[in-house]
Amino acid sequence: MGYQETYQGYLTAIERYLGELFLGDRPYGQLQEAMRYSLLAGGKRVRPVLTCAFAELFGGEWKTALPLGCALELIHTYSLIHDDLPCMDDDDLRRGKPTCHKVYGETLAVLAGDALQPEAFAILAAAEGLSAQQRIDAVAVLAHAAGGDGMVAGQVLDLDGKCRSREQVERLHSLKTGAMIAAAAELGCVAAGASPEQRQAARNYAREVGLAFQIRDDMLDVIADQAEFGKPVGSDKEEGKTTFVDLIGLEGCEREVAVCTGRAKAALADFPGNGFLLELADQLADRRK
Ligand code: GRG
Questions:
Q1: Beta strand extents in the chain (DSSP E only)
Q2: Does 44 sit in the ligand 1 pocket, CB within 6 Å?
Q3: Among 106, 191, 225, 265, which residue carries the largest CB count within 10 Å?
């Protein structure tokens, strides 16, 4: 099967899984609506795709890994809802649509983000086809990546705006964006019962892809077509953030994305069946949204 077909296969299953969540008839139905609004707003689903692909690479069933990747996507969605709030980045548009708080108000947007977090861990706790130890490992991987020494720490560093050097900016993004991308890959390893060496290779790949992803994000904030990007272009500059474009220029960014992508691919060189993940690294390096 080719790259596009494989991605589409994962994507269809991910959308179906997420589409069936939070459908119950509740007296507080607006909460469910706000959660579904952001969850089903057309994300690329890169993270759950990584989970499925790593499970498959290391001999597991990708359908067993799917709920784990979707659980992580719930946490990713909460982070975007909260990131867009007036007390954080104060954005009106996300994925080309009004942000959650613009549609449902700030209170419900905060609560929709809050509710998505425990729901993610409930999915991990109930995941079928995994041992109790695998479910515990999955909880630990996701909690660590999303928590106070992971994504939230990165967000704090980002919002206090003091990261100016390249080293500081890289650290910020390895926490804010990289930790969750690495966790997505590791969840696939957990589902497949991968060896420590395989898990390390997955982390190495994800670290490089995560950095390339962030550098590309900074480039897109300058060069993207706003309609395609789905959020305002130039917002980093407006917010006074130090970006990779400030630090090394657009051409430097392009070179750095290529270097990271090369290193990501090298991390998986020894594993037969790596074709999809190698192509995914290339596709992310060239992404336009
Ligand atoms: C609120 C605790 C808290 C954290 C927010 C992830 C994050 C931290 C903020 C998002 C800000 C941002 C634009 C980061 C750059 C890279 C990134 C994570 C982009 C969004 O991820 P995509 O491109 O989004 O995978 P889609 O829409 O495809 O899901």
A1: 93-94, 97-98
A2: yes
A3: 191
pLDDT tens-digit readout, 232-258:
778 777 778 899 999 999 999 999 999
State the Cα–Cα distance between residues 209 and 213, nearest whole angstrom: 6
Q: Bridge-partner residues for 97, per DSSP?
A: 94
What is the number of residues in the chain?
Answer: 289
Domain annotation for the chain: domains and CATH numbers:
3-285 (1.10.600.10)
- pLDDT tens per residue across span 140-193: 999 999 999 999 999 999 999 999 999 999 999 999 999 999 999 999 999 999
CA of 262 to the centre of ligand 1 (A): 23
* Site to substitute for ligand 1 among 51, 177, 221, 233, most atoms within 8 A of C-beta: 177
How many A from CA of 111 to the centre of ligand 1?
Answer: 18
